[in-house]
Design goal:
By secondary structure, this protein is α/β, with parallel strands linked by helices. About 30% of the residues lie in helices and about 15% in strands. It has helices spanning about 100-110, 115-125, 130-140, 145-155, 160-165, 175-185, 200-205, 230-235, 245-260, 275-300, 335-350, 375-390, 420-425, 470-480, 500-505, 505-515, 575-580, and strands at about 50, 85-90, 110-115, 165-170, 190-195, 210, 220, 270, 355-365, 395-400, 440, 455-460, 485-490, 520-525, 535-540, 545-555, 560-570, 590-595. The longest helix is centred in the middle third of the chain and has 22 residues, at about 275-300.
């Protein structure tokens, strides 16, 4: 595991592109191109078979936070042309503190606060068409139908002040049909916030709540008692703040939540509401600020001098091509960053397509443990970029490294992973407190799967001589359920054991489990058998595209380029690769050979 690391090389634990990575806290779920890393330049043509982009020509990373103003309430100017205002939904049980948080959000961000109760009263008092319909139901003691409520909300959302300042939907939608109605009209928030408070606390807050009929101020017998005896003597208990009615309202809230949360599962951010209001708002504020940062970064998409409307943003056409001089070790910061971005984009696309069991196989020289230039720091840097990408979206990511395997004298950890957990702990995870909040560390196993974890990234899980990690992995994925589990450079082939037990008992089941993880990214250089020089070409796959085979071509000016010569719908075999380099068609597998002008 020796690594060539001259002093001139960039430190593998320093974030690429700028000295200190600051993505930290999360925000909304975004398309891969709008992550907080600088996007790749779009291709200047609709498709380019020949790639000759030098790694040195990689665009310099742009500082985050340009071009977007997070609007504060009173003095907030209208958003710039083309800049979308914030769109927030917030939900919480009775007495969860939702009203307080709505007030604080509006004060800082200037969003239009929309509550269906307030809307109903306003529409009815104004005598609008929708208000008249609602009044008919209310006068007859009936619930206002979902469609009428939705029409009322949509009407409010279309008003100029909402279009200009953004909106905060308070406690709406409350039913599956309401959520689906909004979805059908493409009305979707940037984030869905849920205030999570234990039932006992909610009941205590409600039952102990008292109303001053003179001032309308709310007190609590324990948490916020009145200032004097005069006020105390006139306080009353609201009719719906009895124990029985509070329990009933909680059950209704839970049923409504269970119905609508699946619609917004990818935008969901659960906040612990059983804390001081200022602490709760601090976390909400971090989420909203991150949305501002990500929207800003998305505005900086490289266009190669074209207008944004003319840029093809498909996954294939915004790819720059394979960097050159990959045998130069250590890799430059630009080369490392190129591969980090390539991995992150493909993995995000797979997760957005609801893939939950994924694996990444990337074997550039610094990430290939078979080569003497393997660098554990490069692997850790890749994991950091991937983890922070999802943390930017408000996901709580558990980064896992397998622990010691075996017992007694046979206990140990694979050499490739030695010291990995310590490196994770001391790495720079940015200035915004991501580590310990949205990024946490654990081992491989069911015991490290916690309720608040949204996804899991396993670093190079592998079997050791006489020991198998797959049982621990299976227990972990079972506990994770439908939450994504991503393997980075797994090595799950059986290892030999002196008794031969490992190779035979349960082998088919182990191999079947290992194969259940779908590859979302794969890259490896192609060499002649038994050598690592010269590079003959490369094999790449980035979800959801096909496997692509490239030939490396030397040019007269001393440069090199990678030429696409074949595509496969499935991972090509060594024979397929050999046939592609010879220009032979293999009829046994569906493949499309491209005329690159070379053959």
């Amino acid at each position: 595991m020796a690594a060539a690391s001259p002093t001139t090389a960039s430190h593998p634990l320093a974030a690429p592109g700028h000295p200190r990575r600051c993505p930290g806290l999360p925000a909304r779920r975004l398309a891969p191109a709008s992550s907080c890393r600088p996007p790749l330049a779009a291709s200047s043509s609709s498709f380019q078979a020949v790639s000759s982009v030098s790694a040195a020509a990689a665009p310099n990373p742009k500082p985050r936070g340009l071009g977007l103003r997070c609007r504060a309430a009173a003095e907030a100017p209208p958003p710039a042309r083309g800049e979308a205002p914030l769109k927030v939904m917030i939900s919480g049980a009775p007495a969860s503190g939702k009203g307080t948080q709505c007030r604080m959000i509006v004060e800082k961000y200037g969003l239009v606060h929309i509550s269906t109760g307030d809307l109903l009263r306003a529409e009815v008092s104004s005598g609008t068409e929708i208000g008249k319909k609602a009044k008919e139901y209310m006068d007859n003691g009936k619930l206002v139908p979902d469609q009428v409520v939705t029409d009322m909300v949509v009407s409010r959302l279309s008003q100029p002040d909402v279009q200009e300042r953004g909106w905060l939907l308070d406690g709406y939608p409350r039913s599956f049909s309401q959520a689906q109605s909004l979805e059908s009209m493409k009305i979707r928030p940037d984030i869905f916030i849920v205030l999570d408070v234990p039932d006992d606390t909610l009941i205590d807050r409600c039952v102990g709540r008292r109303l001053d009929p003179v001032t309308g101020k709310i007190y609590h017998v324990k948490n916020f008692p009145p200032e004097n005896e005069e006020i105390s003597s006139r306080l009353i208990t609201r009719s719906d703040d009895t124990f029985e009615k509070v329990k009933s309202r909680l059950e209704t809230y839970k049923q409504n939540s269970e119905a609508i949360l699946p619609t917004y599962s990818e935008l969901l951010n659960q906040i612990d509401g059983n804390r001081p209001a200022e602490v709760v708002f601090q976390e909400i504020d971090s989420l909203l600020q991150k949305i501002c940062d990500n929207v800003s970064t998305n505005k900086l998409t490289e266009t190669n001098g074209k207008s944004p409307d003319s840029v093809d943003t498909s996954s294939k056409n915004d790819w720059r091509g394979i960097p050159t001089r990959l045998n130069n070790i250590p890799h430059s910061r630009d080369i490392r960053k190129y591969f980090y971005d390539d991995v992150v984009k493909a993995t995000r696309r797979a997760v957005e397509d609801k893939k939950t069991r994924l694996q990444i196989d990337i074997n550039i020289p610094e990430l290939n443990p078979e080569m003497d230039v393997y660098r554990i720091g490069t692997l850790m840097e890749l994991v950091r970029e991937l983890s922070l990408s999802f943390a930017d979206d408000g996901k709580r990511v558990k980064v896992c490294v397998q622990g010691s395997m075996g017992q007694g004298a046979f206990a140990g950890i694979p050499l490739q992973l030695a010291g990995t957990r310590k490196i994770l702990e001391v790495m720079d995870w940015g200035d915004y407190g991501a580590k310990g909040t949205f990024i946490n560390f654990g081992a491989v196993g069911a015991s490290d799967v916690e309720k608040e974890d949204d996804m899991f990234i396993l670093i190079a899980p592998q079997n050791a001589v006489g020991n198998c990690i797959i049982d621990d992995m299976r227990a972990m994925t079972d506990a994770a359920g439908d939450r994504p589990v991503i393997l980075v450079n797994p090595r799950l082939k059986d290892m030999p054991a002196s008794s031969g037990v490992m190779q035979t008992m349960g082998r088919d089941m182990r191999l079947k489990y290992a194969a259940s993880f779908e590859t979302c990214y794969s890259f490896r250089l192609l060499f002649y058998a038994g050598s690592f020089y010269p590079i003959m070409g490369a094999l790449r796959m980035a979800y959801p595209d096909k496997y692509e085979i490239y030939r490396r071509v030397d040019e007269p000016n001393g440069k090199e380029k990678y030429v696409l010569i074949a595509e496969f719908t499935e991972k090509p075999t060594p024979d397929d690769i050999t046939s592609a380099f010879k220009g032979q068609k293999n009829r046994k597998r569906k493949r499309h050979l491209l005329d690159s002008g070379v053959f």
